[in-house]
Amino acid sequence: MTVYKCKNWTFVPDSQEIIYADGRKAQLPSRLNSCLLSLITSAGKTVSYDELLLKVWGTTHKDASTISSVISEIRKLVGCGNDGQKIIVTLPKRGYRFTQPVEVVDAEVVSEPPKTNQPKSTSTTPELLDKSEAGKETQNGKESTEPSVIAVRTEKSTWKWLVIVLTIIALLLAVNTALNLTENTQVSQSYSDFEVLSHEVGREDEFDVSNDGRWLVYVNKAPNVKPSLVVKELSTGRTQQLVAKDNHYFGSPTFSRDVTQIVFHKQTLDECEVWLADFSSFHLDSNNTRKLTDCGKGGFWSTTAFSKDGNHVYFSRANSLTDPFKVFQLDLRSLFERSITSPASSGRGDYAFSLSPDGKLLAIVRNVLWQESHILVRDTSGNQTEKVAELPYLIDRVAWLSNEELVYCDKNDELWSYELVTKQQTSLAQIGFSCNYPVVAAEQLFAIKKVRIKNAIWTLKKGINDPFTIQPLIESPYYDFNAMFGANDSLYFISDRSGEEKLWQKTVQGFKQHEEVQLPANARELEFSIDTNSLYGLSQKRLFRYDLDLNELEWLSKKKHEVFNFSITDDGQLIFSEGNKEYWTLKSLDLFTLKISALNLNAFSARQSNGQLYFTKFHDKGLWKKDLQTGVITKVFENINIKFNTFWDIWNNEKLIWATDNKFNIFDLNTGHLVSDELTYQGHVGFLKCSSDRLMCTFSFRENDESEIIKFK
């Protein structure tokens, strides 16, 4: 039997186990065992996807993502090597490589008795002898009726070590139990397999599954179709629905524990209401619904929940964008309601929550500064609230795997759990697709699987006497986005057509990939400057420059400062806003000297045109301008709904173009009059940029999102 020893563990493929230095053991499923053996026996060499598929699955007719979940599980078991370096590294588009030194040990060592001057015994190994055979061993050539001294000593030694090993294992198990203090420890597992539960066109944004696993309720939103609230019997596929009327839409449905009621939101863009549906007869009927209370301003998303006994409903209320969500508890018997959380005014507030299986704890997701999530746990019988986790990104919902363990999806296609007692976060699976809104019911995990959005680059153009038109510029089955104007009528953009997101260029000769350009991770909001032949962009809220002549990356802002957007002016200035607790300061960076100057403006986004600096504010609607010669600030438009997060730019120094509500709005900057609002689209616009030289704008156009409700297996 051959075993493989690394610094901190030993791998025994024959018994499919890893033995750690502290004595712990981990049993490997067959696929993990075969995969790890293939990697170790080829240590230092790249093992291709096809080779792994053939060795582990016996076929190559599977996607590479099939391997990634197995590799993820193996990495959790073997950990990292020296200095935190990965033991198993990924070679994009090629395969995987085991990087650490491995000692190969032959464990098939034959046990022999100690050498003596006595005649060699012809018996078998002493440990395997029974009493009758032991009595027939010879000492000094004579038969003996007693077991040999060698056999007795070996037996005693073996039992001594066996007792020690068993004692160590028992102690380790006891320590592990004491640390976890939970009856249902969640074992890290792969959720690579799933079943799709919804098959409609469009998005399923919010849903719930009944406690008995029989019913699914969800909201369906599709193009050119009125939103609906759908209840589906999972065993038969039979559906019932409530169709929204007028400008209403539904949201956040939740079953009561006894499946007799459904609480949900009914909203317009202006108002939000909490409604209750009677489902005691398993029939969804608008005549059996009633309004419970108002939930404030419409157009915002939040969740709902029932108490375990069904006598109370939890919901969130916010009256404006600047009013953070607060969680309320409503008594269904008296309709008395009270606020149970009080978030600071530094983000969207407490917008998502779920109740533990025993009904004693409420897990709440708090939006902080619109950029990170804090998970809070509140005792429903008292007033104690504890912050248990801080995540450097936003999540939409948290669910309970047990009374002591939470589960959520992160931004990198990974499922995580959080144990309240040990305060440990554990990766449950690298699932290989974007998911959100996890729900746990009937001991099953459900979620929304986001389907890849088709992305294309479009243009908005206008001749001298022609109207504005929109038309596709780059269409492909790939993820193309972030178009930038280059020299000689070329266009830079980001695409994954090479298997990973890289810089591409569209020229009159065709498409060119810039393989040598190594942009930082998650580079976004890229712009190109012809004057410096450099790309400027954001990564992890930091501003950077990538010199295309030198192929060098340079950071222009510090980690402690947060930058969300910027623009480049015709006179070689980069204008950007730097944020701190929702207060945004406008600054200017000289592209040639890299000197930064404060512009003394509280503004979120800005564009410079024809001697004027146009800008938006973080909370206030509208567009302002500052005359760069006189310093006078005036509000350009009073009654338009342009906000801090609107995609907008200036065309040919005379037209304001901004995208909202599925259409382009075009205004004349000189007169303030609306020029056009007839250019409509079905989908979402991102990264709108205009060029005065080319009399055109480019934008990334995303078709309507698709999503599916899935059950993990």
Structural notes for this entry:
The chain is mainly beta. Among the domains are: 2-107 and 157-180, Orthogonal Bundle (Arc Repressor Mutant, subunit A), CATH 1.10.10.10; 194-451, TolB, C-terminal domain (Neuraminidase, 6 Propeller), CATH 2.120.10. Helices cover 10% and strands 47% of the residues. It contains five helices and 58 strands. It has a five-stranded antiparallel sheet with strand order 4-3-2-1-8, with no helix packed on it. A four-stranded antiparallel sheet has the order 11-58-33-32, with no helix packed on it. Strands 12-13-14-15 form a four-stranded antiparallel sheet, with no helix packed on it. It starts with a strand and ends with a strand. Residues 108-158 and 173-188 have low confidence and may be disordered.
CATH architecture of the domain at 194-451: 6 Propeller
Q: Overall pLDDT, averaged?
A: 80
Largest sheet, if any? Answer: 5 strands, antiparallel
**What order do the strands of the largest sheet run in, or round the barrel if closed?**
4-3-2-1-8
Task: Please sum up the structure shown.
This protein has 713 residues and is mainly beta.
How would you describe this structure in keywords?
Neuraminidase, single chain, 4-stranded antiparallel beta sheet, 5 helices, Arc Repressor Mutant, subunit A, mainly beta, globular, 713 residues
Question: How are the SSEs ordered, and which strands pair?
Answer:
Elements: E1 2-5, E2 9-12, E3 17-20, E4 25-27, H1 30-41, E5 46-48, H2 49-56, H3 65-78, E6 88-91, E7 95-98, E8 103-106, H4 131-134, E9 138-139, E10 142-143, H5 149-180, E11 194-196, E12 203-209, E13 215-222, E14 225-233, E15 239-243, E16 249-255, E17 261-267, E18 271-278, E19 289-297, E20 304-306, E21 312-317, E22 326-331, E23 337-339, E24 349-355, E25 361-368, E26 372-379, E27 385-391, E28 399-402, E29 405-409, E30 414-419, E31 424-430, E32 435-441, E33 444-451, E34 455-461, E35 469-474, E36 480-485, E37 491-495, E38 502-507, E39 510-513, E40 524-529, E41 534-539, E42 542-547, E43 552-555, E44 562-568, E45 573-580, E46 583-590, E47 596-602, E48 605-609, E49 612-616, E50 623-627, E51 633-637, E52 647-651, E53 655-660, E54 663-668, E55 674-680, E56 684-691, E57 696-702, E58 706-712
Antiparallel strand pairs: 1-2, 1-8, 2-3, 3-4, 5-7, 6-7, 9-10, 11-58, 12-13, 13-14, 14-15, 16-17, 17-18, 18-19, 20-21, 21-22, 22-23, 24-25, 25-26, 26-27, 28-29, 29-30, 30-31, 32-33, 33-58, 34-35, 34-57, 36-37, 37-38, 38-39, 40-41, 41-42, 42-43, 44-45, 45-46, 46-47, 48-49, 49-50, 50-51, 52-53, ...
